[in-house]
Amino acid sequence: MVMVVGGWICFLGTAFVIVGLLALVSRLHAIWFSRRLAAAPRWACSPDARGRLPRYVMVTGVTAPGPRGPARSPGFDLDCVWYSSEVVRVGPDGDESRSVFRDRSDGLIGVADQTGRAVVDVGRLAASTSIGGELVTRCSDNTSTLPIPYRAGYGIERLQRAGRVPAGRRGILGYDLKLQEACLEPDRPITVLGRPRRLRDGSLLLQARGLAVSPETPDRWLALTREDAAAGGPLSRMIPIGLGIFAVGAAVVAVGVSLS
To answer: Is-contact 35 237, C-beta < 8 A?
Structure first.
């Protein structure tokens, strides 16, 4: 019995250490990222800059079409500068077994201010996080329900009329179709942190590697990141507490072993 109690105390201590380590990693990342935000020069979208480019710059403006012009999402026909659309089969048990349609626009979008337009490569960021947060409009449709938002003739029905998606099968062995669509619409406020490169026409390109985006202003983005760093402090203190609890549990286990 003593050994069982000691084992549970060790388990509790280990849980404290794991939570503390996760909080510490999150806090260190927030501190590192806040320093990068603070150090990055704030440039206009069409900067009059010469010489060597800095490693990172920050630009603020509104979303705009990229070099290939405006886009429209295939399912809901929304005006956008970037979209990602996928239709999957949903079996009777709710299992999303296979993708039957996938489409994603070019990863190059524009960010515009009063000076002009910069080009931003959101391709890699979009693939991993769907760009994320308040910047993106999300729409969904399922052949067993009405599309959200509901617009007659849109969603899966529109893709089926265009021959891009097959009809769902009903019955015991049938399946439904589920559409998930994310769109980045034009004229959305956006701040971008990225690695700059000059294009042949002299315009600015922020590359995909190391790119970060936010709907906030630069000052607000930096303040929120610093708040995240400060919030992780108390939880990271769980590491020494957990180690102490684990040591107590180990001692109890040792006592149990000696008594057995």
So the answer is: no
* CA–CA gap between residue 175 and residue 97 (Å, rounded): 10
- List own/partner pairs for 221-229 with CB under 8 A and 24 or more apart: 221/37, 221/191, 222/34, 222/37, 222/38, 225/30, 225/33, 225/34, 225/37, 226/30, 226/34, 228/26, 228/27, 228/30, 229/27, 229/30, 229/31, 229/34
192, 111 in Cβ contact below 8 A? yes
Q: What is the widest separation between alpha-carbon atoms in the chain?
A: 81
Alpha carbons 31 and 36: distance in angstroms, whole number: 9
E strand spans, 31-167 = 42-43, 57-64, 71-72, 79-80, 82-90, 96-104, 108-113, 116-121, 136-142
- Report the DSSP beta bridge partners of residue 140: 148, 180
247 pLDDT above the threshold of 50: yes
**Which tokens go with 93?**
């048990």
What Rg, from alpha-carbon coordinates, does the chain have?
Answer: 25
Cis previous bond, 47, omega within 30: no
- In the prediction, which pLDDT does 219 show? 92
Tokens of 169: 């099968």
Over residues 51-110, the pLDDT tens digits come to 688 889 999 999 999 888 888 999 888 899 998 888 888 766 666 667 888 888 888 899
* Best CA proximity match to 185, nearest among 74, 62, 60: 62
pTM: 0.76
Query: How far apart are the C-alpha atoms of 36 and 218, rounded to whole Å?
Result: 12
